[in-house]
Amino acid sequence: LVIGWGRAQVRVLEDRPLQCYKCLHYGHMAAACQTDNGLTGRCFRCVGSEHVAQGCTAAVRYPLCHKERREAGHRMGGRAC
């Protein structure tokens, strides 16, 4: 891609499945989520309940992988899981 005097390489992103930001499960979005066990109000970095991700200094922990006893040191949407 050439813009003015500059060039940029463009890559098409891979399709990813729908993922709910309320419960983090795949196949639906938060508006259609039926769970009562959502993560609303929790940090999406470490799943802590007393802060938000912007100020989080804790280690990254993906809650679904942690719950299933898999390696959980990655963020939601990463290729690790």
Automatic annotation (TrEMBL):
Read off the InterPro entries from this record.
Znf_CCHC, Znf_CCHC_sf
The organism's place on the tree of life at top rank: Eukaryota
List the Gene Ontology MF annotations in alphabetical order. nucleic acid binding; zinc ion binding
Descriptive protein name: CCHC-type domain-containing protein
Where is the CCHC-type domain positioned along the sequence? 19-35, 42-58
Gene3D superfamilies annotated for this entry?
A: Zinc finger, CCHC-type (4.10.60.10)
